[in-house]
Amino acid sequence: MVDKKATGRKRKAEGKQPAKAADKHIGLVKNDPWLEPYEDAIRGRHDHALWKLGQITANGKKALADFASGHLYFGLHKLAKGWVFREWAPNATEIYLIGDFNDWKETPRYKLKRIEGTGNWELRLSEKALKHGDLYKMKVKWPGGEGERIPAWCQRVVQDDNTKIFSAQVWNPEKPYVFKKKKFKADKSPLLIYECHVGMSQDAEKVGSYREFQDNVLPRVIADGYNCIQIMAIQEHPYYGSFGYHVSSFFAPSSRFGTPDELKELIDTAHRNGIAVIMDIVHSHAVKNEVEGLGNLAGDPNQFFYPGDRHEHPAWDSLCFDYGKDEVLHFLLSNCRYWLEEFHFDGFRFDGVTSMLYYSHGLGEAFCNYGDYFNGHEDDNAICYLTLANKLIHEVNPNAITIAEEVSGMPGLAAKFEDGGYGFDYRMAMNIPDFWIKMIKEKKDEDWKPSSIFWEVKNRRPDEKTISYCESHDQALVGDKTIIFRLIDADMYWHFKIGDENETVHRGIALHKMIRLVTAAAINGGYLNFMGNEFGHPEWIDFPREGNGWSYKYARRQWNLVDNKELDYHYLGDFDKDMLKVIKSVKNFQSLPLQEVWHNDGDQVLAFSRGDLVFVFNFSPTRSFTDYGFLVPTGAYDVVLNTDSKLYGGNGLADDTMTHVTNFDPLYVQDHKEWLKLYIPARSAVVLRKN
C-alpha cells in the first residue's frame, strides 16, 4: 500500500527504467535517476526561479535582501525629525490616518498623498503629531465604497478588551530593547526542537505572556536538553482559537502575549542560553477579515490574493496569496527578512506548504507516483516564491534554519537550490506520526513488526534532511489524540499515581518511551516534540470558543503534573531528558550511518547502531529473552539508557551496572565482530555504548 504522506519515498516512474546518472543531469536527477523523465519540469521550475531572481535583483546587481526591504519603507516609521507613513493601495482614491491624535476623524493634516505614477501613498508628519501608544487606523476610500483598515505593514496591533476592536498602535518606546547577544549560531548537531505556544504555556487558565514563558517555560526547555524552540502563533491573528493560522497582520507580533520588546527579550534570553528560536510562519494563506486583515484593503479583494476560483481556500475559510505578483513577493519576502533582522529569529517552519504547491491544495490527491508531482497541477508561482524565500533567508543569515511542513512528498523540497531543489534545510517527516497512529489504532501489540517500524522511521530521500517526530501540536488538538491518550485513555485520570498503575498504564508508559526512542534514534536531521508531550500531558488542546463557554481549561499546560514526584508523568519527562542527553553525547549524531544490526519480526526484536551506540528494542508484549545475541564490533559495551529502568517507571529487570563484553566467534574474526548477548525484557529498549 502506498503511503501518501511519505516524506519522499522513492516512487518509480511507471514503465520507465532509470538511466545512469550523468554530468548533463541536474543534481536532483543525478541523486535520483527515477526523476529523469521529469527533468524538463524540474529544470523549468529552476529556470523560473532564476528568471524571477534576475528580474527583481537587476540581474544580480543588487542583493535579494535589497528587494525584500518593504518593511523599511512601508508602514509607520520614526525619522530623525518627525514621522513618515506609507501604504501600497493602488485601488484607493483617498486615505486618511485616523486615531487618538485626531478624535478618529478625517482631518487634512493626516491625509495621505499618492506618490505619482505608483500605487503607493505617503504621509509625513511632525514630531508631535504622533506619540508612543497612540491607536490609529487608515480610513480608505475607493470607487463605490470606503472603510476603516489596519495598515498592511503595521508592526503593532492591539485589541480593546471591551469592544474587541483591533487597532494599530504607535510603538516608539523611550528605551527600546537592545539585544545583549549580538551574534548567535544555532546548534544543528542535531537540531532538537521544542514546539511551543506562548499563550497556552502556563498552568493558569489564561493567556500566557512572553515574559511568563521566558521565566517559567524556557528554563524547562534548557534543562530538558532541547536546543531550539519553535514558537507558534507569533504573527497577529484576530481569533485566538485559530492557533495562529489565520493571520491578519503579518509584521505584528501578537500583542495578546505582550510587547514587541518582551518578545525580543525572550529570544535574546534563549540565545544567551544556547537555544535557537524559529518561528512558525504562515505564508500559505491569510484571514478573510477585511477590517483587521488584508481581505479588502482598498476596495480590491484581489490586491494580495488570487482572483476567481483560486481566491479562497476551500478547506480553511481563508484567502490564497497571488504569488505571481511582484508586490506580493515583495510583501512576503520582506516579511521573512523583517522577522530575522528585527527580532533575531533563527529561521522558520513554513506552514501549509502542500497547500501552496498545488492548485488543489493537495486536497483529494493520492500522490502515488512521481508523475503526480509534475502533471501541470502545481503552482509554479508558489514554487518560485518558496525557492526565493529560502535563498533570501540564507542570504540574510547563512546559518538560518528553514523547515517545510509538507505532506505530499514533493521531491527536491529540502534539496539544494543549485541541484534544482527548493532550498529548505529540512522537511517534516509527516509519515512518522501517521504511522504511529495507525500502529496503535489498528495493530495488536503482538503484530508490531520491527522491520516495518525501522523502515518507516528512516523513510526519506537521501539528499533531503528531515525533522522526525512522533507527534506535534496537530495530534494534541481536539478532534485528534496524543500518543499517550491513544495508549492509556481515561486510565490517565485514575491510575497514574505511582503504585496504583494498572496493566494499561504500564503498557502505555513502556510504549511511549520506546516509540520516542526509536524515532529520535533514527533521525537524519532533527527531532521535534510538542510542549508537554514529552511527559505525556493528559489533555487535548481546546482553545476558548463558544462551544466550551470560552474556557481556558484546556488551553494551558499542567506543569504541576510533571513536577509531582508522586505521579507517573515525571518518569516520562525524566526519560525524555536522558534520551536527548544520550543523543547529544555524540557530535553530529544525525549524520552517522544508520546501520541495522538485526531484526526478527517473529521475536519482535530490532537492533541498529550509530557510531559507538547500539540501540536494541524488544516490542514483544509478553516475551523476554535471555542471552539474545547480536553481531557487533568486538569490545565492551555499557548501558547508557534503559526504558525498563525504575528511574523511568519500568520494572528494572536488568542489571544496567554491568559491562557487556562480546563473545568470540572464529567465523567473524575477519569482520572484527563478536556476539553481544543481552537480557532484553518484554516491551523494553536499551542503548549501549562501546567503550
What key phrases describe this protein's structure?
691 residues, alpha/beta, 8-stranded parallel beta barrel, 6-stranded antiparallel beta sheet, 30 strands
Task: Produce the secondary structure layout.
Layout: H1 27-31, H2 39-56, H3 64-67, H4 70-73, E1 75-78, E2 83-88, E3 94-99, E4 113-114, E5 120-125, E6 135-142, E7 145-149, E8 157-159, E9 166-169, E10 191-197, H5 210-224, E11 228-232, E12 235-236, E13 249-253, H6 260-272, E14 276-281, E15 286-287, E16 312-313, E17 318-319, H7 326-343, E18 347-350, H8 353-357, H9 380-396, E19 401-404, E20 426-428, H10 431-442, H11 450-457, E21 466-468, H12 473-476, H13 483-488, H14 491-494, H15 503-521, E22 526-530, H16 559-563, H17 569-584, E23 595-600, E24 605-610, E25 613-618, E26 625-633, E27 636-642, E28 660-661, E29 673-680, E30 684-690
Parallel strand pairs: 10-11, 10-22, 11-14, 14-18, 18-19, 19-20, 20-21, 21-22
Antiparallel strand pairs: 1-2, 2-5, 3-6, 4-5, 6-7, 6-9, 8-9, 12-13, 15-17, 16-17, 23-24, 24-25, 25-30, 26-29, 27-28, 27-30
Helix pairs in contact: 2-9, 5-6, 7-9, 15-17
Overview of this protein structure:
- By secondary structure, the chain is of the alpha/beta class.
- Helices cover 25% and strands 21% of the residues.
- The protein is built from 17 helices and 30 strands.
- The strands form seven sheets. It has an eight-stranded parallel beta barrel with strand order 10-11-14-18-19-20-21-22.
- A hairpin with a 6-residue loop joins strand 8 and strand 9.
- The N terminus is likely disordered.
